[in-house]
């Protein structure tokens, strides 16, 4: 049974709820404070040599060269973002499709759930980076090895979310579906799956963050093509800490933006399903 | 108010103590140990024989020598940046990168020249540099000396790495792992320092670029000796003593090659747990030149190649980094 989540003790009328603008301005202030502190310990007090902890200015220079620089060696971060996004999207789509099918099978068949489901939970606890050496030996030092790790990391949360969501569909819906003549696959696809969508979406969001982390970990070890992982490795190897920090920030921003997007879709769907009360 | 002043004083003391703890350690007082960084490669042979024969320790007298072994210039450079290494044998690639980023580095002397070869896997169709198109080529690490050489070779053939929009995949594989990488067909060719090139050749793989055709007809530094500039300033006598020992090690390598090879092999055995076939070592030795001379022109060209490879935007003026 899915529990309807409603903010407890929040009795404020909708009009006094913090406006979007206010939240944004608080976030901007927080960012300013962080950058200010960062400037203080680097350029301000010079607590660290720049080759250990570069200043915000040095990192910004790397971002500027990497994203919109026009020199022959510039724009590499932009290319890296493109390469990494392409790789993660391909891996993510495959992971979602594969996870969806496996999840449906597990949801429909108890023995599979008891065996495969348990193993998947175990595999999920292994950090993705641990699979990289195996992937390299198995598939070679190439993109396929990265994709393997991304798909492996992405498909497990989807499969577990789908099978879990199917089991959590209110029995009344199952009974109602049967009464109206739905059986077997039809019942699963037409009645149970639609009812399970909100929980599945949560799984998709988890899968995204797993896949993104696995991608960067894999790319770091399998450098070679345009990728954010390669930029990290190049930064490290050429003692360019500014590039390392710039890449880390970009990885965080992209991961956060996609999470925000999926979160928006999720909460919209939850609202449509009556699981969240609009403020 | 005295209490406020006291507090300010305490605070400033705490800050300076904290700074000393977290930033590079202060090196003002005379050192009691010399921390030496090097790799277990033939191109670092002066380090190997200097350690094996006790040349360094003898020159340093009561000051203790602490040798630290590294597998790549990257980790060595990181240790150098963190202030954990005083003197190091390192490739010009990472050394120039360190200078570019403003690390306190001083180039002391040359150690070895040439000594790197481009080897193709025996079952690959690679015969010349042109055949590297579409292939996977390994280097010890991205941005290291061999990587910069490889990118230069590729650009002369109008080839580019995949990350630069071309079709040659450049992957970092530690030289000791290239045998396995070739066996698993994970790489089609590799640009490695000796003795790894000769070791691969002994397994039947083909040298397609000799130490002479890789760059500047072999007249380029492969390993140089660097020192932390702050350490050098605080301990000029130690640096001079170490340099003298380094010259002795190089002289031994050039004047008594047979004895030197035995010494290198014994030290490699100690470090890696495996002795090299003497014939492999001999071949690798013949491709490497040992010298204390530092070819400033070659270093400047390296700095330019570093820019060409995209690892730096400007070539630093190396003059202030060279020991007068």
From TrEMBL, chain B:
Transport listed as a keyword: yes
UniProt domain Solute-binding protein family 3/N-terminal: residue ranges: 33-256
SUPFAM superfamilies (alphabetical): Periplasmic binding protein-like II (SSF53850)
Cited Gene3D superfamilies: Periplasmic binding protein-like II
Signal peptide limits: 1-28
InterPro entries given in the database record: ABC_SsuA_sub-bd, NrtA/CpmA_ABC-bd_dom, Solute-binding_3/MltF_N
Annotated keywords: Cell inner membrane, Cell membrane, Membrane, Signal, Transport
Places the protein is found: Endomembrane system; Periplasm
Matching SMART domains: PBPb
Molecular function via GO: ATPase-coupled transmembrane transporter activity
GO CC aspect terms: endomembrane system; membrane; periplasmic space
Family of this protein: Belongs to the bacterial solute-binding protein SsuA/TauA family.
Protein name: ABC transporter substrate-binding protein
Organism per entry: Deinococcus koreensis
Lineage: Bacteria, Thermotogati, Deinococcota, Deinococci, Deinococcales
């Amino acid at each position: 049974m899915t529990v309807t989540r409603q903010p407890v003790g929040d009795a404020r009328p909708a009009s006094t709820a913090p406006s979007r603008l206010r939240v944004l301005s608080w976030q901007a202030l927080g960012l300013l404070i962080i950058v200010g502190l960062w400037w203080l310990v680097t350029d301000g007090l010079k607590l660290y040599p720049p080759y250990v902890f570069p200043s915000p200015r040095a990192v910004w220079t790397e971002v500027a060269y990497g994203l919109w620089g026009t020199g022959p060696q510039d724009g590499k971060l932009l290319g890296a973002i493109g390469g990494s996004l392409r790789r993660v999207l391909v891996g993510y789509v495959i992971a979602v499709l594969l996870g969806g099918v496996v999840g449906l099978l597990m949801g429909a068949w108890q023995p599979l759930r008891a065996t495969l489901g348990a193993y998947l939970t175990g595999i999920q606890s292994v950090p993705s980076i641990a699979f990289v050496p195996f992937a390299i030996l198995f598939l070679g030092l190439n993109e396929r090895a990265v994709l393997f790790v991304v798909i492996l990391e992405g498909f497990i949360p989807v499969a577990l979310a789908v099978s879990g969501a199917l089991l959590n569909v209110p029995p009344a819906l199952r009974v109602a579906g049967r009464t109206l003549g739905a059986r077997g696959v039809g019942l699963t696809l037409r009645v149970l799956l639609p009812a399970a969508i909100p929980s599945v979406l949560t799984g998709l969001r988890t899968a995204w963050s797993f896949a993104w982390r696995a991608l960067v970990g894999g790319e770091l070890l399998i450098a070679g093509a345009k990728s954010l992982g390669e930029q990290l490795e190049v930064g490290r190897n050429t003692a360019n800490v500014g590039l390392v920090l710039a890449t880390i920030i970009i990885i965080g921003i992209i991961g956060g933006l996609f999470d925000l997007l999926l979160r928006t879709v999720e909460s919209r769907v939850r609202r449509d399903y009556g699981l969240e009360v609009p403020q | 108010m005295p209490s406020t002043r006291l507090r300010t004083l305490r605070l400033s003391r705490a800050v300076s103590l904290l700074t000393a703890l977290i930033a590079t350690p202060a090196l003002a007082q005379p050192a009691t140990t010399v921390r030496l960084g090097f790799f277990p490669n033939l191109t670092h042979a002066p380090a190997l024989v200097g350690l094996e024969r006790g040349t360094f320790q003898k020159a340093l007298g009561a000051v203790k020598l602490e040798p630290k072994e590294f597998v790549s210039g990257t980790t060595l450079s990181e240790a150098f940046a963190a202030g954990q290494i005083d003197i190091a044998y390192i490739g010009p690639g990472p050394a120039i990168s360190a200078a570019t980023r403003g690390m306190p580095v001083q180039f002391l002397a040359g150690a070895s020249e040439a000594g790197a070869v481009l080897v193709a896997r025996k079952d690959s169709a690679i015969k010349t540099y042109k055949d590297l198109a579409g292939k996977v080529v390994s280097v010890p690490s991205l941005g290291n000396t061999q990587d910069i050489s490889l990118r230069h070779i590729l650009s002369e053939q109008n080839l580019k790495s995949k990350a630069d929009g071309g079709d040659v995949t450049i992957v970092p594989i530690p030289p000791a792992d290239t045998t396995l990488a070739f066996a698993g067909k994970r790489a089609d060719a590799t640009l490695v320092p000796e003795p790894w090139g000769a070791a691969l050749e002994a397994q039947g793989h083909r040298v397609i670029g000799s130490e002479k055709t890789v760059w500047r007809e072999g007249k380029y530094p492969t390993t140089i000796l660097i020192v932390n500039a702050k350490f050098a300033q605080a301990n000029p006598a130690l640096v001079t003593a170490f340099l003298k020992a380094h010259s002795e090690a190089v002289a031994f390598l050039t004047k008594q090659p047979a004895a030197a090879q035995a010494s290198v092999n014994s030290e490699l055995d100690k470090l890696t747990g495996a002795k090299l076939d003497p014939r492999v070592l001999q071949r690798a030795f013949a491709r490497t030149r040992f010298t204390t001379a530092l070819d400033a022109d070659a270093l400047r060209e390296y700095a330019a190649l570093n820019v060409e490879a995209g690892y730096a935007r400007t070539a630093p003026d190396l003059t202030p980094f060279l020991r007068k």
